[in-house]
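Bumping with the actual sequence this time:
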Amino acid sequence: MKHLLFTFLIPVLLSSIIGCSKKPLTINGQIFVVTQSRENIKMGLIPVHVIPDQAFKPLASEVLIKIQVQLREQAQREADGTARTLFIHELTAMENLGFNISELTKLRKEAVGDLASKHLKSIAAGNDFDRATKAFIDALPQFITRTDADGRFSAEIQAPVWMVAYGERSVGSKQEKYTWIIRHEISGEKLSEQALLSNDSNVDSIEELYALLARQAGVSQSIEDFKTAKVSSDYSNWLEGARIRANMALDKAKRLAETEKAEQARLAKETKDKRIQQIGQGAIGTLLEIPLTNTSIAKFCFIPSGTFTMGSPSDESGHSSIEDQVQVTITKSFWLGQTEVTQGQWEAVTGGNPSYFSGSDRLPVEYVRWDDVQAFIGKLNESKMLPAGWKFALPTEAQWEYACRAGSKGPYHGSKLDEIGWHYGNSDRKTQAVARKQANAWGLYDMHGSVWEWCADWYGVKLLV
């Protein structure tokens, strides 16, 4: 008895053949699988087809045509799928430009939906190995014999024949499939053609099957001739139309964006022109809104020019010896922030927040040095939010006291400190949100109490005017 060993990922053994010199020749054999652990798995109760040599060649031609068609269809699916995937990448690139274009979203849904449909059809059709071997097995004539429980079989032949056996076995959740193909000569025990096909093999089994069938059918075309395809006309037409729609939508979005940009520029100029007019024609009670950044706005109160008495009388409660009274004239009107700079405004401009207290963007910023404030103001002036001739700056001490008093002459601009400012007795020993107390006559909040405020100039014993 001879043993024919096929070595693949899982080796498979077809042992045969015992014969005699008299006709007909009796062939006895056994089919079993040799696992990686060298265990013999007997392939019992599987059919063994015996096909005369002259009948195998037309069968090979018939099956070869089916395989070629299957390969062309698969290549077509892959070509169409690749083309559609590339188009989806093009859509992604367009979407990444930042335009919100509904047409691109619609096209993406169409493309992905079509790809998903084709993918499901491809799965339903099976992979190349399953479809090719199925076409081959389906074309075989009625089997002659069947192996017994031990995988043994016996057949008589009188001329060269092809012997084909097909079997499956379950390994866990996987179904392993095997197809044995052997051509046996009547003279002696010569095996002139042999092949083993398996879906659990390191060898491309469809390549081997195609080559065997091509040799028998006398076909010279390589299997590679059927593995490539151009994009189908239906796909090509859809893609051409889809690209036109996508580009038209993108062009429309760009034009719209340019129009919106021009309109925004016009409105910005109009707003700036109005701000220029408003800054130059302020009046007490007028509020000026100025954008510090794209996300933060500050309100400023108009402070008119005028003369006031700076300092406090010696008999005033809380008077300090360095607060001697002096008459000061503010020669030019100016605008002062309606509130202290908030944590939200500071963070919008600088990107950070040094404050000890937290919990609201409306809390005043604290723990800032004078140099920090100068850097903050520098950023505001770099933004060029103000018209020519105007700039952001800290108020001088004289400007600050003038604005705080707002025409009043007492120690506070109001009658009761609790109503106009936060202090140790009413603040719960922490900062409070701005603009919750009463404003002074010129609309300024929190000029008394709350946090200390920086001025542009430094302290001096005598006021130099």
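The tokens above came from a reply further down the thread. DSSP finds nine helices and 17 strands in the chain.
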